[in-house]
Amino acid sequence: MMEGTTSIEQEDRRTSEPDGLMVFDGLCNFCSAQVQFILRTDRAGAIRFTSIQSPYGRHLAARFGVDPDDPSTFLFFDRGRPLEASDAVIAILKRLPPPWRWLRAMSVIPRPLRDAAYGFIARNRYRLLGRRAECMIPSAQQRARFVDDAYRGTLVPPSDGVDDVAEGPQEIVPLDDGAELPIVAENLLEDRR
């Protein structure tokens, strides 16, 4: 339990955090390849994405201790809990269909060993597949799965260039610097009905 919070406060915070959201390094070819793999595999759309370079991704990364300018890991929000490294990988695998879901069995490997393997890949990811000059751009079919501009309240870049705010119930999330972050709550939060 986090110091200074009760279990009720932690549960309240978890229910206000996104669910099934992967915050990834959009400049990393290795990371972008993982996103493309998940897009092809997760046909149910259980996992959504935001790049760490987006305003919302930067906010989440900084809030949970990941340097958005030099990310050494990615974040995955599983039922409001921010996970990183091998725990994040396992949580994503749990949401994928078989046979990929079965790989979650690697959770029996002690975390220090899993995280050491993860850390090796993370440190060498640019050497493995290189780095992009710009973030990947999702296709029209993929855009609904990307949360790129939560600061304006939109979930996808407008296709016609109009700066309309997405419709739907919005939640205002206060930021540490006193600003507010409007997000379309129905698309970011797990459906709790």
The 3D shape can be described as globular
Give the N-terminus to C-terminus distance in angstroms.
27 Å
Computed over alpha carbons, the radius of gyration is 17 Å
The total of helices stands at 7
DSSP summary, beta strand count = 6
Instruction: Return the domain count.
Output: 1
Sheet/helix structural class: alpha+beta
Return the string of H and E elements: HEHEHEEHHHEEH
Q: DSSP strand (E) fraction?
A: 5-15%
Task: Report the helical percentage.
Answer: 25-40%
- Average pLDDT taken over every residue: 75
Order of strands in the sheet with most strands: 2-1-3-4
Low-confidence stretches: 1-12, 151-193
The largest sheet, given as strand count, sense and whether it forms a barrel, is:
4 strands, mixed
Task: Quickly list its features.
single chain, 193 residues, alpha+beta, 4-stranded mixed β-sheet, two-stranded antiparallel ribbon, globular, disordered N terminus
How would you sum up this structure, described in words?
- This protein has 193 residues and is of the alpha+beta class.
- It has one domain (8-147).
- The chain is 34% helix and 13% strand.
- The chain has seven helices and six strands, in the order H-E-H-E-H-E-E-H-H-H-E-E-H.
- Strands 2-1-3-4 form a four-stranded mixed sheet, sandwiched between helices. A two-stranded antiparallel ribbon has the order 5-6.
- The longest helix has 13 residues, at 29-41.
- The radius of gyration is 17 Å and the shape is globular.
- Residues 1-12 and 151-193 have low confidence and may be disordered.
